[in-house]
Amino acid sequence: MTKAAVVVFPGSNCEHDAVLGLELAGATASLVWHTERDLTGFDLVVLPGGFAHGDYLRPGALAVISPVMAAVSAFAERGGPVVGICNGFQVLTEAGLLPGALQKNDHLSFNCEDATLIVANDRSSLTQGVAKGTKLSIPINHFSGSYVCDAETLMHLQNNDQIVLRYAVNPNGSLDDIAGVCNEAGNVVGLMPHPERACSSLLGSVDGLVLLRALVEASVFA
User: Fold this and answer.
1) Which tens digit of pLDDT belongs to each residue from 109-150?
2) Which structural domains are found in the chain, ordered by start?
3) Which residues have CB under 8 Å from 205's CB, separation 6+?
4) Could you tell me the pTM of the whole model?
């Protein structure tokens, strides 16, 4: 069975949701404290949402120097699937594992609502096998969720099919309606919406399982 590592930083608060979502998607998931230096034995890695190290300096900035991030980088370089959700996305951009950055929402208020996402890439570790154009209802929960990059980077993302998800209705001012991006290889993905919070009809949507099941499946071939 696929073994998933869910990295926990001081200030993470979505780690148990991520574990539950991954288990509903068919994996076994374990919490990994940020001081861990070895991810041997895991098939995929998730950096969950929250406020890593209190979001001091800026979201994700201090998490980059946690010992586990060297292991995350090495895992990604070997082609292992790595997904950062919300604060985890911010950590991945700060670590240079994904291009661009996340800044404050354009309306300068906290977003907590369901968002309709459109799948723009069907080859990433999070969307492999999910048809382009598929619409998913996934909640968002962030203050610094507006994706930004320079014009050259945006063109590179567009030309290399690295935009994974877009918002149907932009909730935060993200450039090009971007909700998630991947690296060139497609194995590292960051997204602001929370698929782990859309894994039960009791929560209003099971669309998050579409993404998490794709992630678990992708880990088999990594």
Assistant:
1) 988 999 999 999 999 999 999 999 999 999 999 999 999 999
2) 3-221 (3.40.50.880)
3) 114, 136, 137, 138, 139, 198
4) 0.96
